């Protein structure tokens, strides 16, 4: 695949939710297009048929710190280096816009992937609203 990961790739609102569902996540259709308006930047990749196959974003105040989320690669394109390229592209953009810290949370089974992509594992916490 010779396509390039693009910062702020034009994306139709339902493309990301459909990609989320392909990897087994909730689509969160109501989050889009609002997410594009509120995050600092995103990155995406399309295949030769113009189908969205990778997506991720960084959100935050745009000052010193950003939070990376939703690193998604279509199941048919996983294990080909696309995810790592996506993360690195987002980190390059974070550096370009002056972010000094980017954090994310991930399942421990992905520690090697994120370490290889430039992150240092550290402890943290999670608060979740009770339904």
TrEMBL record:
InterPro entries: Acyl_CoA_acyltransferase (IPR016181), GNAT_dom (IPR000182), NSI-like (IPR045039). The keyword Plastid does not apply. Keywords: Acyltransferase, Transferase. Residues 7-131 form the N-acetyltransferase domain. Coiled coil: none annotated. Pfam families: Acetyltransf_1 (PF00583). It comes from the Bacteria. The keyword Acyltransferase applies. One of its GO terms (cellular component) is cytoplasm. GO terms for molecular function: N-acetyltransferase activity. Gene3D superfamilies: 3.40.630.30. This is GNAT family N-acetyltransferase. It comes from Brevibacillus fortis.
């Amino acid at each position: 695949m010779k396509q390039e990961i693009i910062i702020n790739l034009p994306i139709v609102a339902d493309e990301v939710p459909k990609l989320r569902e392909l990897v087994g996540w909730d689509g969160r259709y109501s989050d889009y297009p609002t997410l594009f308006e509120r995050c600092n930047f995103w990155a995406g990749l399309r295949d030769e048929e113009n189908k969205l196959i990778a997506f991720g974003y960084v959100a935050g105040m745009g000052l010193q710190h950003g939070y990376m989320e939703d690193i998604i690669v279509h199941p048919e394109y996983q294990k080909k280096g696309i995810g790592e390229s996506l993360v690195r592209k987002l980190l390059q953009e974070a550096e370009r816009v002056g972010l000094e810290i980017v954090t994310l949370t991930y399942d421990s089974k992905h520690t090697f992937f994120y370490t290889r992509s430039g992150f240092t594992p550290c402890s943290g916490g999670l608060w979740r609203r009770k339904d």
